[in-house]
Amino acid sequence: MLETETSSSFVETALDRISQTPRLWNILRWIVEAGFRGERAVIQRELHPWRDIGRRMFLDFGCGTGEFADSFPSDYYLGVDLSPIYVRFAGQNSARRSFAVADGAMLSLANASFDAALVLGVLHHLPDEVARAAMNELHRVLRPGAMALVIEDVPPPDIWNIAGHVMHWLDRGGFIRNEADYRAIFGDGFTIIRSYPMRSGICDYSVYVLKRETL
User: N or C: which end of the chain has fewer CB within 10 A?
Assistant: First the structure.
């Protein structure tokens, strides 16, 4: 038992160190998630970023290293993240796109200033109270009727996805929830238009397409 716990601690420490080097973290994620093809396809299908260019503003809520910034028109995109290291890396590697360091529960952004938002792999890092506060803040900065695309980690449903179960075990997010718990986090400010499972490489996600309601 002690040997297993020591091995687990070693791997988690190694992952933490890799995560502090954005380029290495991106490479690792790119490998295990098969080039992010699953996420990119969902973004294009649900948010249609290249439709009506110039008429919609997009918020990447928890943008991390800016991996998905190029999925959106350059002048109509803002990525925010709590990590200065990731935001700096994103700004250096995503031409003509804007990024800012920000606490998702206290954004210094105007009310109703965005038409759509991407929330990808954010909520499973946050305890319930903080996650609800972040969704409330997202509701504030989105315009009534705006769409929010939430893609969140879930436990692998396929028992034979051994690699996926290992990644789930090693995931740095301590609050991976089931579908009912994620729905409870969204609150009354959003209506779920549709939801479905998605596999990206060996990683399993739940996809939620939300509509911002007027409250």
Answer: N
